[in-house]
């Protein structure tokens, strides 16, 4: 399988500044301060403070209803903030949505929509280029490369409704890749997928972080897959802990997040 060619647009447009755009950005953090979300009368998140680093795979973990998806949506302006700020490179992230590729939970996507795999991935280009340019040679090449990268090129003409859960997730991963974003946000990408898809997803995450991208993933599985994450944000309405995986996965933090309902996780990795 191919790895991601971040320089593709540069080689087409002969614009070296594009390639520079994809070099490691050590200062490009997301800073979340005093973030709160209230749904009608229910408080979903209270006073969340954390920093998300580029070049590190960051997981948002916590029990059901902890506010994991809400945190991701609130960061992206998809649900209103009751309090707080979310800054990227010092400016509100909500005003920089073109830098973000967001893949919602599979259950929130209309899989009966009459579109082929190819169309769905190509549509990922629209935000970047507008409707007309999205069908340029660059967009077509990026779409081809992304589908090859996730092992879905032979399904290009297949309607998306006729794919397995894992295949659908890989198509949306490809759609995120063609957006050439700086920040990648995935809500529960590991739910209901096969082993092959899980392997592809973590390989791609690794390539993205190696290229200095921010990669943020909502996950609730405390099993073996957690060892792929560098940093964690552990929630239960409030922030329980944030930092490296080893710092966060302590008996005390897990007890606070899960009310004593999980065993102590010994991280030997
Ligand atoms: N649109 C909404 N309107 C009202 N309440 C909501 C809405 N979305 C989420 N909630 C509530 O906010 C809380 C946090 O929900 P959220 O989906 O963010 O949690 P989560 O940690 O992602 O949960 P899960 O792991 O079950 O997906 C829950 O109590 C949920 O019922």
Q: What can you tell me about this protein's structure?
A:
The protein is of the alpha/beta class and 269 residues long. The protein has a single domain, classed as 3-Layer(aba) Sandwich (Rossmann fold). Helices cover 33% and strands 23% of the residues. The chain has a six-stranded mixed sheet with strand order 6-7-8-3-9-10, with helices on both faces. Strands 2-1-4-5 form a four-stranded antiparallel sheet, with helices on one face. α6 (137-149) packs across α7 and α7 runs parallel beside α8 (195-210). The two termini are 27 Å apart. The site of adenosine-5'-triphosphate (ATP) has 12 residues, from β2 and α3. Residues 39, 42, 44, 62, 64-70, 220 line the site of adenosine-5'-triphosphate (ATP). This is Metal ABC transporter ATP-binding protein. It comes from Atlanticothrix silvestris CENA357.
- Over the alpha carbons, how many angstroms does the gyration radius reach? 18 Å
Low-confidence sequence ranges: 5-26
The mean pLDDT is 86
What proportion of the residues form beta strands (DSSP E)? 15-25%
CATH superfamily: P-loop containing nucleotide triphosphate hydrolases
Number of helices: 10
Pfam families: ABC_tran
Domain ABC transporter: 30-262
Protein name: Metal ABC transporter ATP-binding protein
Keywords: ATP-binding, Nucleotide-binding, Transport
List the helices and strands and how they pair.
Blueprint: H1 8-13, H2 16-21, E1 30-39, E2 42-52, E3 57-61, H3 68-75, E4 83-88, E5 91-92, E6 100-103, H4 117-123, H5 126-133, H6 137-149, H7 165-177, E7 183-187, H8 195-210, E8 214-218, E9 231-236, E10 238-244, H9 245-248, H10 251-258
Parallel strand pairs: 3-8, 3-9, 6-7, 7-8
Antiparallel strand pairs: 1-2, 1-4, 4-5, 9-10
Bound molecules: adenosine-5'-triphosphate.
């Amino acid at each position: 399988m191919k790895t991601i060619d971040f320089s593709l647009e540069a080689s087409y447009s002969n614009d070296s500044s594009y390639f520079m755009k994809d070099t490691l950005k050590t200062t490009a953090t997301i800073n979340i301060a005093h973030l709160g979300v209230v749904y009608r009368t229910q408080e979903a998140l209270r006073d969340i403070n954390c920093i998300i680093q580029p070049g590190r795979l960051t997981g948002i973990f916590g029990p059901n209803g902890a506010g994991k998806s809400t945190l991701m949506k609130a960061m992206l302006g998809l649900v209103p903030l009751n309090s707080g700020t979310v800054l990227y490179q010092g400016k509100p992230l909500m005003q920089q949505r073109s830098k973000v590729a967001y893949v919602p939970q599979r259950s929130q996507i209309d899989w009966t929509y009459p579109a082929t795999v190819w169309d769905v991935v190509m549509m990922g280009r629209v935000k970047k280029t507008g409707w007309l340019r999205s069908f340029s040679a660059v967009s077509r090449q990026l779409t081809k490369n992304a589908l090859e990268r996730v092992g879905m090129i032979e399904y290009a003409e297949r309607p998306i409704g006729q794919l397995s859960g894992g295949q659908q997730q890989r198509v949306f991963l490809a759609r995120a890749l063609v957006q050439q974003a700086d920040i990648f946000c995935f809500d529960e990408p590991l739910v209901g997928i096969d082993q092959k898809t899980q392997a592809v997803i973590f390989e791609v995450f690794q390539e993205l972080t190696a290229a200095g991208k921010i990669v943020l993933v909502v996950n609730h599985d405390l099993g073996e897959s957690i060892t792929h994450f560098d940093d964690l944000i552990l929630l239960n309405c409030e922030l329980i802990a944030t930092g490296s995986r080893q710092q966060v996965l302590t008996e005390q933090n897990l007890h606070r997040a899960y009310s004593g309902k999980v065993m102590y996780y010994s991280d030997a990795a």
